[in-house]
């Protein structure tokens, strides 16, 4: 630890002492930690344990399963004492977390079989380690600091799985000026996935959403004893179905507190304005569960609109707490549960339509009369997306029947007077129905402006497409569909990072959607006839069918005004067209949907959009959707991280516009820098008006927050990044050329190259997805980073990064600080076009002579592979295989694949034989041993002893020989395991 880090640590401990934590400098090892825990446990549970009882207690509660440990921390448990009697116990005071003992320890070192890490600062509640703080002075990215913790924690045999550290709930990383925190989890949810997305990390904020990131201020607000106790006991959510821990974001906590306070004080209604994509379901779930424990509340109803949202919200709630919400299959079930005294029926998820029927005095089943016993009870109603069309009609009925009810609304896009379309009449006066008139007051606001600044959602890139020529369309006026399709086909690959992501095409009417579907089919077929190698886009289309008395469809259409209206005209024609669209879908995807079960078709479409995840061996591209054509559907309430583009051939305004645009801006990773909008209706004025209306608090230039920089600015940034890289290479006495990167001397220089080129690649990735670049700008970009130079630098980057990554892993805390802080972000260097199948196809094509075959030399093909992060662990093998292929011998793809497998098997045999000879072992025995390790994915020390037995060595000499063998064998085992963990191997790698 550097002197500066030590000073930060001392200052933090002083601060925590001010906050009444007890500093325990005597707790520096595992035994002192356990001794202190034993004292606290005995005092809390009023018991004295024998040494054997305490040992059994530790064996029972210490577990590598983080989710199980989190349960033990919060619940009553029991174990058998020496005399056979049960002892019921808790680890902390779970009734009042503030009344626990709070202590701080530092520089704890816990040595297990193969984990020797030292932990900067740990906070103990009643002797249980619950928070770990890692302090840095380097300008290290929070992701890299987090990645280090992930690496340490996921080592086999680490201290987190074998000691009281298994109870850690939160990790905090700070370099004093910048502080982040995140939840502990099992490996499945606690990995640094280079292909897709990273762990959710948080910064703390005040109620007005202002950041609190300075460590001193953070400690004051977040680590105050009762605040931390509440954070762990009330504001962490255990997702039962996924065995996962989640920590609520600050704005979610403030909203829940405001809502619960409003009910406890019985001071009327309110609404929460939390932008689309900010996790409203989790917020409302936590509010509901806290209300479940409030004896003053008879029932808490979470009310949604539309059948699919009913199911979706119920599934979300049950995801957070298994079985906590039953399905309300009909209004009768709703009424039965409302009248039930069962605690399980206290929180109910239902649709507003069922609630309306229950309160309809004219209904033949007379539900309203049966509900009379509830009339004067205190009821809490929480409405999801409270501006939906049905709400106003039921609002009055709820207030009249339940005079003591409190109503709360959640919305991502409130209704103000400016965007209101419904009127309400009170006496002789008519006024517009706004969110505020319905719910009285705002309880908490977290707008899209806040969310973008927090990086919880992405900014937007908007391309207002203008065709060439004198006659420019007016705002709101559409173009010819053929022109729109031509433009989409030309721009789609760029906009979606070569189809890594997918898109929605929003159209004005069902007739337009049908016409678009047919024309896409026709135009793509023509293009494919001209170019047999063309991969057509997978196009789907979804709109609601004519209801024809079908209640499910009627319910769906209540929030689809355009589709409801369209289906009144020529419904048979629309039905026939939808049947043809579903038939085409069945042919494309091997499904068996029909219009009579439209909802199943609709669900399947949604699932395929969400399953765009790449790479995804279980769902090849042919089974995914590139573009789905819609009218109203999917433009509200639908979330997918893999949807990044919206094509707009439909007039949008205010909340409708924001809702539609927000389908594209879910955060994934750096390959998705923003949500992409390609507008064919010249709606710039509408966009600017919507941004101004939904920015929330007064923001001087909201457009600068909401929208990405224009292309010229980003091109300028790219030129600046390339200049910095060139100046750095010159400062090392080298040319700014890929071939000179291997000549960099020292880890500090190599680390600096990694950092500088990563910036170049990130800016190039952003520009690749801009759909509004003109020819001059494309040439400018190409001149700044010529494609061949970029590919060469990518290859050099991966070579350098691989070397430094291995060093990071090998040296851990002892690595040079310049290496330790590096975050390689390999995801930026993985092409979505180039996967294993594509490479095998390209190798096969490179051996063919036909004119339609791809013209690419072997060295160009090798360069392509070496510049792609997906092949980082086998790029040398593929390159060697390609170079060894016989010239002028045409091979098909099957032969290429088989040849490569044979090549790898032969090479593995040669490498193992060389290792066996070097260590005086029988090659066949070593081959058998390695095959067994790879088959079981377990490294068995006893079998290693058997392998070494023929050498007839004493234990000391044999141990030295084993370590020498493993130094050569470990890298090969890791390579052959292809990223999969081999249990027990790390014990031989110290």
UniProtKB/TrEMBL annotation:
User: Which InterPro entries does this chain map to?
Assistant: Helicase_ATP-bd (IPR014001), HsdR_RecA-like_helicase_dom_2 (IPR055180), P-loop_NTPase (IPR027417), Restrct_endonuc_type1_HsdR_N (IPR007409), Restrct_endonuc_typeI_HsdR (IPR004473), SWI2_SNF2 (IPR040980), Type-I_R_enzyme_R_subunit (IPR051268), TypeI_RM_Rsu_C (IPR022625)
Provide the E.C. number(s) assigned to this enzyme: 3.1.21.3
Instruction: Spell out the PROSITE patterns in the cross-references.
Output: HELICASE_ATP_BIND_1 (PS51192)
Output the superkingdom of the source species. Bacteria
This entry's Gene Ontology molecular function terms read: ATP binding; DNA binding; helicase activity; type I site-specific deoxyribonuclease activity
Keywords assigned by UniProt, alphabetized: ATP-binding, DNA-binding, Endonuclease, Helicase, Hydrolase, Nuclease, Nucleotide-binding, Restriction system
Does the record's keyword annotation contain Repressor?
no
The chemistry this enzyme catalyses reads: Endonucleolytic cleavage of DNA to give random double-stranded fragments with terminal 5'-phosphates, ATP is simultaneously hydrolyzed
Domain annotation Helicase ATP-binding: ranges:
261-432
Gene3D superfamilies reported for this sequence: 1.20.58.910, 3.90.1570.50, P-loop containing nucleotide triphosphate hydrolases (3.40.50.300)
Which processes are annotated in GO (biological process)?
DNA restriction-modification system
- Family to which this protein belongs: Belongs to the HsdR family.
Q: Note the subunit structure.
A: The type I restriction/modification system is composed of three polypeptides R, M and S.
The protein's matches in NCBIfam families, at most eight in alphabetical order, are given as: hsdR (TIGR00348)
Query: Do you know which PANTHER family this protein is assigned to?
Result: TYPE I RESTRICTION ENZYME ENDONUCLEASE SUBUNIT, TYPE I SITE-SPECIFIC DEOXYRIBONUCLEASE PROTEIN SUBUNIT M AND R
Full protein name: Type I restriction enzyme endonuclease subunit
Q: Which organism is it from?
A: Sphingobium baderi LL03
